[in-house]
Amino acid sequence: MARSTVGHILGGRSHLFRPETRELVLRTAEQLGWKRPADWRSVSRGRFGCAVLLKSVMQDRSCIGTNFLVALEEHLLERNMHVAMARLPDATLASETALRRLLKQWSADGMFISYTLRPPPRLHALIGRLDLPAVWLNSRAVRDAVHPDDLGAGRTAAELLLAAGHRRIAYVGYPFPLTMPEEHMHYSMQDRPAGARAAVLACGAAWLHVSGSDSASVATWRERLARPDRETAVIAYNPLQILPVLHAAALLGLRVPQDLSLITFHDETVWMLDQEIASLALPEARSAEIAVAHLCARIGGAPSRALEALPFTVRSTLTIGPPPPRVKGRPTARR
Predict the structure, then answer these.
(1) pTM of the entire predicted model
(2) Which of 164, 170, 241, 258 has the greatest CB tally within 10 Å of its CB?
């Protein structure tokens, strides 16, 4: 039997051949484990049913959470689509031809773009000029960008502490070098403390922002928490920044939350030293849902547009308590 006959029958043109020929080819193909591609109808309409996830070859420039990826896959499957991952150097994304080739080579209808730090210089402009179906992840790009409301999250964290009665609040940031240019930082490193600071100062409370190498120093936090006028609550950029604070508090005999309140931001429940830390949950599942819906709309011809920032949710407040009573200007240590 000619290969072309087999190709025609398996490719959807079996009506051109006799019933016994069709039956023989299909029965043999089934015995050999052949299955019709799930996206063959999409291909016939000029669609592949695939979205490519574009990332940098440098891991720290394309941070993406497992919960987000799981949700992304689930929402794509609901639309009979799947995701392929492409880790490419910047030099391959420097021209219109390269971007068009990317979609063709990966048999993709559109792309998710994950650059949390320093996207390739011309990528925004090229995608806009070509009007390619693309959604930026965890980015504050002007259009087609899905991102959490980190400014609002910082404000919410501070408001929870202020409502508990705290009036001396510290924020511990990511331990990046103080000389690092702002464009090399993810926007959340600026938005979370900015939102918290605005809420704290609006209430007339005292605000301290600890960043750089001091933020990861147990000695720095031990010295601060031993002061008579110490901060009674700490907001941390992420769980890693809580560790030196907890260590210093333990050395001083301060308990959480009786003597010191803590809150942070994360996509998972945060457990440290046998207790759940108060946290605001990143909207990973919702971000994936919006990203898939918007990309599919763009693939279908919908115009590019701005997307709203997605709110965090309060997961736990277990390490938030009232500020400790003070005796002669010093916090009372309970042991």
Answers:
(1) 0.81
(2) 170
